[in-house]
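hey can u run this one w/ zinc ion bound, need the structure tokens asap thx
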Amino acid sequence: MKQWGAIEAGGTKFVCAVGRGPEDWREEIRFPTTTPAETLAQTVAFFRRHQAQAPLAGVGIGSFGPVDPDPASPGWGRITTTPKQGWTQTDIAGEVGRALNVPVGFDTDVNAAALGEGRWGAAQGLSSFIYLTVGTGIGGGGMTDGRLLHGMLHPEMGHVRVPHDWQADPYAGCCPYHGDCLEGLASGPALQARWGDRAADLPPDHPAWQLEARYLALGLVAYICTLSPQRIVMGGGVMAQPQLLPLVRQQVQELLHGYLQTPQITTQIDRYIVAPGLGPRSGIAGALALAMDAAG
Ligand code: ADP
Ligand code: ZN
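ok here u go:
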């Protein structure tokens, strides 16, 4: 039976796993993201240990970014202009592929998660959908007409600008590039900076959650109006708040104001804006799917 390697390359931690399918994992390890040299050496050592027992048909990488996901570009497989210290222009896919001598599939962390959800999770059978993570940052990926979203680079859905009422919400936002873009206003660190408590510690009836839902819904409405996704999957640490998803759905309906008369929006919004079917495993499962696709 074939097995593949999967890498969820995050800005704070790496997850490396070997699996034969989304429900058949052999081993998984996680370690903090330090320097590229140290982190990639740990990654390669893990997979080499497996290769010593059985071949790997391929490896898939869902990476923090920005990255170059264009196979036709000389920079393919690199992390490009990341603010993360030391990681600028790291050829992550190239190094892993050369060290292990296997085909490598490479995409953004959120496109990988979207692919996982599309193949095995909450977006199965759909050709156009979005996966949005709301965590340390906000990022979105997805598919349109059966292809992962790329284009000029790849979507940066967290950095859309949303209306910011400075009277109602004087918090300036925490995005180092834009201040009050969506990520600057609604990421986990933004919640903590605005309210002075860790997002996880804010009680469910705290006004933070209404405001959070408003900002997230403003983002979703922009994506709905530009990409017309058939479903939106929302993951990430902040979405662990169970009261948040229903608030977001309500706000999306309110903001669209009856303009889109599709059942997805009007009567079935509970099935339109949903939690990940794979829970916290969308990203690693998606990396496995990238590996399978790269191996053909
Ligand atoms: P990352 O984005 O770093 O990959 P996560 O998606 O787990 O990781 O997001 C981490 C962020 O989510 C933290 O900054 C924290 O603010 C927030 N978070 C974690 N758990 C919760 C929770 N239970 N409720 C609200 N926010 C949370
Ligand atoms: Zn920004």
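The mean pLDDT is 97. anyway lmk if its weird
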